[in-house]
Structures are given as structure tokens and as C-alpha cells.
Amino acid sequence: MAQVLEFKLPDLGEGLTEAEIVRWLVEVGDVVAIDQPVVEVETAKAMVEVPCPYGGVVTARFGEEGTELPVGSPLLTVAVGSPTADTDTDTDTDTDTDTDTGAETEGSGNVLVGYGTGAPPARRRRVRRMAADVVTSVADAPAATPAPAAETRGRDDGPVPVISPLVRRLARENGLELRQLTGSGRDGLILRADVEQALRAAATLEATTQEATLLPPATLPTTTTTATTTTDIDGVTRTPLRGIRGAVADKLSRSRREIPDATCWVDADATELMRTRAAMNAAGGPKISVLALLARICTAALTRFPELNSSVDMDAREVIRFDRVHLGFAAQTERGLVVPVVRDAHVRGTEALSAEFARLTEAARTGALTPADLTGGTFTLNNYGVFGVDGSTPIINHPEAAMLGVGRIVPKPWVHEGELAVRQVVQLSLTFDHRVCDGGTAGGFLRYVADCVEQPAVLLRNL
Length: 463
Hints:
Elements: E1 3-8, E2 18-24, E3 31-32, E4 37-42, E5 47-51, E6 56-61, E7 68-70, E8 74-80, E9 110-111, H1 131-140, E10 160-161, H2 165-173, H3 192-201, E11 230-231, E12 237-238, H4 243-258, E13 261-269, H5 271-282, H6 290-304, E14 310-313, E15 318-321, E16 327-329, E17 331-333, E18 336-338, E19 341-342, H7 350-366, E20 379-382, E21 402-406, E22 410-416, E23 419-433, H8 439-454
Parallel strand pairs: 9-10, 16-20, 20-21
Antiparallel strand pairs: 1-8, 2-4, 2-7, 3-6, 4-5, 6-8, 11-12, 13-23, 14-15, 16-19, 17-18, 21-23, 22-23
Helix pairs in contact: 6-7, 6-8
């Protein structure tokens, strides 16, 4: 007899409490496999495909597209085969010919928060009936059996701490065993950066040659927008602050409310920086983006001025300084402003930074960023010059302590070596939390960045 398991909306990480159903990927009566994506949801941080930890037949869905559900509410129910069905311990091959239309009920070992899907690899259980038969048996059952919320049917070494469907998919497509990794996230959570680092170490990934840019393409993929607007009789349109727009509003308001920020800026001659980039790209190999060079300069400056790679805990009245630089960069997308994070940017070279910026930018454009891609930053680089503006006073990305803003690089009159010349000039601005340092430190950081822009060879001192 089939057993009905209820799959609830899992905690997708970083304290998210709700998500909006964008698109159902399965229908009632469909057969699903373990870890198969069943619904696409939009959180305040990203668009995420949610995989189901059970294999079987979908018997019910909860919520229409556009519905906002709190974490822990039912998403769907799945009918799985009887636990007493075929338990062949010697082989992974099920000899019952009816199993071709079924799905495995064994766990994958890749765990969503609140769900244990691990199972001994030697014991295979499959759905023993055709989809229609399973649905019929479910209809005859007296009541649905809820899924145990914290059950961990796992291997002796415990479940794999993974919450991102993209992380699991990336590991699966490249044949990587997640149990061999040590997660760098909170409580040992395995992040996408951990998987990518392992793949790089194994020489299975090649650096991309795609040029990173923050501007969205002329034609962006259509993203379902479910926020409703209403117009009153006076012609006033009201749009709810939901999803990414709402999250941005909350974060920026909190930054302005809590952080006593100050801004300093300087013009710099970027002619030599642009020549250096052109020479690097002419030498062959992966292309180097301007953003990657600026990021490399940022990480070098933070080595000299680590006070700016920090945050403030006012409850404990402490300044928390970070040894690692997780560099965020502002990216404008059709869905709004997002800040993807390059993990361990301080140990990456310009080629690796270019590749990571390109990957994250493309993920931002397509709505494929995960919550892990958008959190944990310690310093932000904002290249607003791509919008054709020279300067700005950035709002700090709370709870960080500083943000470097970069304007457009344009030809301007400039005194060079005592003579008036046309040079490539850029305005740099630094907004910083005055609680972590004074103007001398902030000015020193900005001046070092400007010196590196004007004379890239200055970076050699830190190599």
C-alpha cells in the first residue's frame, strides 16, 4: 500500500521566512524522482528551483502560481511505494518490470533543511505500481501520513549539509561526491563556492573567456512578475514592496538608520590601467575585465587597511574584523539590484576573478542566483560607471563597513607630467562606517586604490 508523504516549503537559508510560487514544474499525477525540481519560487534574495526529497507520484499541490507561502507550509504530497516492497540488498537492479514507471524512494543524501533523505546505498526501494494504481491506492487510504520533519534516515556518517538545489546539481553533473567536501558556510553548510573550488582543484573546470559586465543585455529573459498593482480613482498607482524590491528597501533603510556613514572621493588617471588591461588581453588566454582589475586592487587595499573589511556588532559593542575578503559587486538585473558575492576574492588572481564575475553576472541575469550567492559579503565594489555616470555616494551594504564606488572612465583634460593632455579619468568614491575607522584610514585606502589605478605596478609591492 502506498504511503503519502507531505513535502513542506523548506528553509531556503539565511533566515528567509516566505517564498512566492512562480511556476509549478509538475502536475498532479506526475511521477517524480528524488531531488527532482518540482516548483520554482521567488524569495527576497533569488529565484530558486525547489527539489522534492521524495520519489513517487504527486497527489496534491498546495498554492497557485503567484501565491506567497510561509516556510513550513505544505507544498505538495507524494505517494511512495510500500516500505516493505522489494528490498534487494545485493544489487541496484529491480527485477520487477512494473518499476519502469516508478521512482526511487531511497534518499539521495543531499539534504534540505528539515528533511533527511539519506538511505543506505545497498537497499533500493521503488514504487511498485503504475502511476494510476498508486493514485487509486492513495484515494482509498484513510488519511495522508505527514512527513517526519526532522527525520534523518541516513548513512552512518550523517546527512550532507546542502540546501541549494544548484549546488547539488553542479556536483551531480560533474560527478563530485559532496560527502568529501567540508563546507565553508555557517554550521558547515556546503556552498557553491566550495563545489567550484573542489572542481578547480581537480582540474575539471576551465576558466571562461566571457567578459564580465554589469549592464543587462538588450533583451533579457522574461521573468514572471507576480506583484500586483492597483490604481485608485485619482490615477495614483501603488506597487507593493515585495520580493527583491522589498528586500532592497529594507536593507537600504536599515543601513541609513544604523550606520553613521561618510563619503570621500578622488579623481584618478586610469590611462595606464586601461593600457595594462589591453596588454594582458593581447597576450592571449582568458580575457581580463576592468571589474576584475578593480577587484584585485580592492583586495590589495584591504590587506593594507583591514579596518574596512569588517562590521559592527552594537549589541556586543564590538568591531568584527574579517581575515577573508568576500567581495560583493552590485549588478542591475530585470528583477532589481542584487549583490552577488565572490568568495575568498583575496586569494584569486585576475583571471579567476574575471571568470567568477562572469559566472555570477550571468546567473544574476537569468535569476539563477542562490541565497548563498547573495550573502556573506564583507566589502562591496559598485561599478555604477556602466550607467554613464561619473560619481555617486553609495549606501553601504549592511552589515558591511564600506563600499567602493567607481564612475565611468572617460577622456578628460588632465595635467600629465607637467603638460595638459587628454587622459582616461575615473572618479572613485568610498563610503565607510565612521565607527570602524576615521577619515585618515578611509583616505589612505582610497588614495592607495587611486595610486594602483594610476600606476598598476604599485600592486607588485603586495605580490
